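retry 2 of 3: previous attempt timed out while embedding FE2/S2 (inorganic) cluster. Reduced batch size to 1 and resubmitted. Inputs unchanged:
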Amino acid sequence: MKVAFILNGRNREFEVSPEEYLLETLRSHHITSVKNGCNESTCGVCTVLLDGKPVLSCSVLTARIEGQEVTTVEGIQKEVEHISDYFGDEGADQCGFCNSGLALTIHALKKEIKDPSEEDIKNYIVGNLCRCSGYQSQLKAIKRYLEDHK
Ligand code: FES
Ligand code: FES
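retry 2 succeeded.
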């Protein structure tokens, strides 16, 4: 079946099977910034934005997103590089496997919640797991980034 949606600002059409998940569709079309960690909706590394909201692409059927807007880090490259600078400064940039999903979540958080508290930030990023950082350095980087971009 054919499914058309907007990917990083461009109208695209993909041939998919009815049971195919968005993670597979994207990765099989060279959008490899979207990672496959658990493939069962628990780790967050496959996060993309669907109409601006973070979703787990391993749990979204491609057939159900006709006409919607999908954003990956390729679509907000400049902002992601900027966020990465903050992560680097705080020593939060380690293996990098979680970075794409987390950067998209931070982008959505910035748009959705004005002046978030530490609790708001923790709640918002709760689905983005990281095996390396211990979260404290990530949290510091996110707080500084949001503070500098009010
Ligand atoms: S790969 Fe989707 S949540 Fe882990
Ligand atoms: S930096 Fe390695 S999983 Fe997060």
